[in-house]
Specification:
Blueprint lengths: L10 E5 L3 H13 L3 E5 L2 H10 L4 E5 L1 E2 L2 E2 L1 H10 L4 E6 L4 H10 L3 E4 L4 H9 L15 H15 L4 H7 L4 H9 L5
Parallel strand pairs: 1-2, 1-3, 3-6, 6-7
Antiparallel strand pairs: 4-5
Length: 181
Amino acid sequence: MTEYILPDDASLMILDDDAPFRTRLARALEQRGFVVDTVETIQEAQSKIRTKPPAFAVLDIRLKDGNGMNVIDYLQNHRKDSKIVMLTGYGNLATAVSSIKRGANDYLAKPADADDVCKALLSERDQSPEPPENPMSADRVRWEHIQRVYELCDRNVSETARRLTMHRRTLQRILAKRAPK
């Protein structure tokens, strides 16, 4: 694990509705020295920001109760110097540009490595963080996306295949295999 030099105020809020991911990321960032507070909804995030705005924030874009990008504006209104990293399982250029324009420091695709999140949080605004040491392969990114859509479709193969515009049998073969490295 890499050693990081954190500022005196290392308060961090993680907003994500995926509980296992949120817990793993919180644990990993606590081990790196952050004082982590986790929330699941936009309303919880706004409440935490009102009482004590964090120095750092990791926000998911798609949440059950709305869009995490709205929290960027809310946090910026309460603490201008906060550093924000956006996470999403649905990476696309338009949302990346929009989140950066709104005030996020970086934009990472899920599942993001804790070291990549750390580097993004601690990088200067006009300086991009170093590229990841072990980036996911294209096959792994594709597999993760398929798994996420499959879960969002309540594990319905036919509906998932329709949304991914792929043949149902092809999807079944992909789902039956192990995750690529």
